[in-house]
Amino acid sequence: MKAQWVFDGGRPCLDLVNTLRDRHRGGRELLTSPSALVEWLVLAGLLPRPVPASPELLDAAIKLREAVDRVSRGEGRPADVRLLNRHARKAPVPQLRIDADGVAHRRLDAPDPVEGALGALAVDAIDLATSEADVRICAYDDCGLRFADTSPKRNRQWCSMSRCGNRAKARAHYARTRGR
């Protein structure tokens, strides 16, 4: 079965958290292999193309994901903070390159592209934890995806209006009109 990736978290680090689905029912893992991790990183725009990844990097990504989830919900432990900081130090550093024609290019250098992508996710999680955004859990009964609520009134309820919001509104409409 092909993974059902969604990118409705509003932040890359929350999209990573959302790779464990159905948390309210014990969880359904989508990062099932190093190649699944690489596929997600490419689709998330954190890798330009597929590269090899080890089982150790998959394990590191899953540990990072759970630390991001706890920290983003205000339940982080000192070990989670250390893990985020350790990964953030591996984030790619922007480098300026000038080609032979004098055109400037921005390039991100990282020794290992997957470690660099995990570092970028850790930096995003640190930015999220220190931002004004509220992290919420989708209010739809069987969803549970996390998302950053940056709405003006901080009252967003669903991970995505096109998915869960529409289903919730349709269910409410049906319930109202069923008795007529």
UniProtKB/TrEMBL annotation:
InterPro entries, alphabetically? ABATE, ABATE_dom_sf, Znf_CGNR
Which ranges carry the Zinc finger CGNR domain?
Answer: 135-176
Q: Which Pfam families match?
A: ABATE, zf-CGNR
Q: Which Gene3D superfamilies does UniProt cross-reference here?
A: Jann2411-like domain (1.10.3300.10)
What residue ranges carry the coiled-coil annotation? none
Q: What is this protein called?
A: Zinc finger CGNR domain-containing protein
Q: What species was this sequence derived from? A: Amycolatopsis deserti
Kindly list the organism's lineage.
Bacteria, Bacillati, Actinomycetota, Actinomycetes, Pseudonocardiales
